[in-house]
Amino acid sequence: MNVTDSKHVVALCGSQRDGSHTRSALEQTLTAAETRGATTELLDLTELDLPVFDPDQTDAGDAETLRQRVQDADAVLLGTPMYHGSYSSTLKTALDYCGFDEFEETTVGLLVVSGGGFPTPALEHLRSVARALDAWVLPHQVAIPNAHDAFEGGQLTDESLLDRVETLGTDLVEYAGVESYPEAVPACTVSTAD
Ligand SMILES: Cc1cc2nc3c(=O)[nH]c(=O)nc-3n(C[C@H](O)[C@H](O)[C@H](O)COP(=O)(O)O)c2cc1C
Fold it and tell me: Whose CA is closest to atom 3 on ligand 1?
């Protein structure tokens, strides 16, 4: 975890495609986080050597680099294209190299892009995975359907989608470290009298 005052947001991009719409949307999300004072990093998994995960080779390739970058984050943004009704194997491989050390009590935001209709299943699958890692997953999430018509020059054109992306970037900064608050109020101290 980052020890300076400013929050650090790290994004993992689950697409390896040149001109990836997922990457474009993540960049726009991180730009929104930066406007809230955060430092950001977009981890392009294409640039890391991450073989398909083998439990007997947990330090393979650039696994340690990946884990360190994720541990440095106050909030993590997971972005993926929808592949066959779920999220990509690229992102799955990266997540399998990580564990509680990287994600427990870490604020996580989700963004999914699809070629067709609403990519809800991939969002739900990612939410389950983040839950299994004991992350704090933001309620606000972004789904970008019909991606091939949604961008121009790497920028989202639809105002409402742009608004959702900007809210995600803002929430990642606002709720980074959310596990430490609000103060828990024991149920027995709450009075309904008066
Ligand atoms: C292997 C594969 C499976 C896909 N499966 C789906 C799918 O189930 N539903 C869908 O709407 N789009 C599907 N798509 C389309 C991608 O989600 C879409 O092209 C997306 O924009 C790719 O993200 P990218 O631009 O970040 O690479 C699939 C694409 C590939 C390559």
Answer: 83
Does this model's pTM top 0.85? My answer is yes
Task: Give the pLDDT confidence of 21-62 residue by residue, as tens digits.
Answer: 999 999 999 999 999 999 999 998 999 999 999 999 999 999
Does residue 129 sit in helix, strand or coil?
helix
Q: Encode pLDDT of 71-125 as tens digits.
A: 999 999 999 999 999 999 999 999 999 999 999 989 999 999 999 998 999 999 9
Ligand 1 mutation target, pool 23, 78, 83, most atoms within 8 A of CB: 83
Phi, psi of 17 (to 5 degrees): -75, 140
Q: For ligand 1, is residue 17 a contact (CB within 6 Å)?
A: yes
Spatial contact of 88 and 118, defined as CB atoms under 8 Å apart: no
Please name the residue whose Cα sits nearest to atom 28 of ligand 1. Answer: 83
Distance (Å, rounded) from C-alpha 191 to C-alpha 126? 39
> Which domains are present in the chain?
8-189 (3.40.50.360)
Q: Which residues contact 191 (CB under 8 A, 6 or more apart)?
A: none
